[in-house]
Write a structure and sequence with these properties.
Blueprint: H1 8-18, H2 21-32, H3 36-43, H4 47-61, E1 66-69, E2 72-75, H5 77-104, E3 111-115, H6 117-124, H7 128-134, E4 140-144, H8 147-155, E5 161-165, E6 175-189, E7 210-212, H9 219-231, E8 236-237, H10 248-252, E9 257-262, H11 263-272, E10 276-277, E11 284-294, H12 300-325
Parallel strand pairs: 3-4, 3-5, 7-8, 7-9
Antiparallel strand pairs: 1-2, 5-11, 6-9, 6-10, 6-11
Helix pairs in contact: 2-3, 2-4, 2-5, 3-4, 6-11
GO molecular function, one term: DNA-binding transcription factor activity
Pfam family, one: LysR_substrate
Organism: Variovorax terrae
Length: about 325
């Protein structure tokens, strides 16, 4: 299967024409299971049949999905990718089954909200009591995930509402974004940090610090990288990297480590004084957080969630920004 991979349109045509649900179930099982036989039993086919299905997949896509070795199979990068996508498709179908069952029994369909961590902390947590009260009696799942996975769930029908940062319009056709929370990137430290008493600092003043900072292909990581480049330095990574607000006080307690993170995540800790903000003279803006949904979405429970988030969004946004100005 060496050689040039077929183009994306060709691969798409082959996948639509030749792939079956049994192929997707096998892909998802193979990544979890240690052996082909174990995966075959999970899917409900014989081992020879599973082996034939895997050969069909690799022949159709002209790429090796799993490496054979003495202990079983190991997924290649392509295998991991296809297994992930298979889980997304199967998850969407499970949601569809739940929704159809709810309709058949004249119940309201389950509401699934996919949200990035900043939205969970900055939008959902402060108004969870209102949401619980307004959505009483409904089955609701708030699923926290990375931005790309949140988008996949929304586009694949596994979520009716996504709480994300404002997306690029070219990547969200047919979707509506409603801004709910302004945000910026803040630098936080232990209250005992030498810079904590200063009214303001330049980012360049922090060039020698050790940093816990956003990672990966996300807007917060890109914003911090641009700000450091403008300030003329490359940030030094601390030994421990973590964006969890629960660990932030301990992470910075050594007096050396600084953390760059969204105000939406750090806001509650700042208000309680568990960490302090080192006031940057130049604000590092982030795309706003809001609700993303399909233009044709008409579910009453989605409208109810949006109403709660709108009512509280302005107060929350002003409180966070005021905290940054004080």
């Amino acid at each position: 299967m060496a050689g040039t991979l077929p183009s994306a349109p060709v691969l798409m045509e082959r996948m639509v024409a030749r792939l079956r649900l049994r192929h997707l179930r096998l892909l998802a099982a193979l990544e979890r299971c240690a052996t082909l036989g174990e995966a075959a039993r999970e899917v409900g086919v014989t081992q020879p049949a599973a082996s034939q299905m895997l050969r069909e997949l690799e022949s159709t896509l002209e790429v090796q999905l799993f490496e054979r070795h003495s202990r079983g199979l190991r997924a290649t990068d392509a295998g991991h990718l296809l297994a992930q996508q298979s889980r997304q498709v199967l998850g969407s179908m499970r949601y569809g089954a739940d929704a159809l069952a709810a309709l058949a029994s004249q119940q309201q369909r389950p509401l699934q909200i996919a949200a990035i961590p900043s939205a969970v902390v900055g939008l959902v947590r402060p108004r969870l009591a209102q949401l619980r009260s307004r959505l009483r009696g409904l089955k609701v799942l708030v699923d926290e995930d990375l931005p790309e996975s949140v988008m996949v769930k929304l586009m694949g029908g596994q979520a009716q509402l996504a709480l994300v940062r404002r997306p690029d319009r070219s990547t969200s056709p047919g979707l509506v974004f409603e801004e709910l929370l302004a945000d910026d990137l803040v630098v936080v430290a232990t209250p005992r940090h030498p810079m904590a008493r200063r009214k303001s600092v330049d980012l360049a003043d922090l060039a020698t610090a050790e940093w816990s900072m956003p990672q990966g292909q996300i807007s917060t990581a890109a914003a911090f990288a641009r700000a450091c480049e403008t300030a003329g330095f490359t940030p030094r990574r601390a030994d421990v990297q973590c964006m969890s607000p629960d660990l932030l006080p301990s992470l910075t307690s050594d007096g050396r480590t600084l953390a760059a993170m969204p105000r939406s995540v750090a806001g509650a800790l700042l208000e309680r004084g568990e960490v302090v903000e080192l006031r940057l003279r130049e604000r590092i803006e982030l795309p706003p957080i809001g609700a993303l949904f399909h233009a044709h979405e008409s579910a009453v429970d989605v409208a109810t969630v949006l109403a709660v988030l709108r009512d509280e969004g302005t107060d929350s946004r002003e409180r966070l920004l005021q905290h940054g100005r004080d």
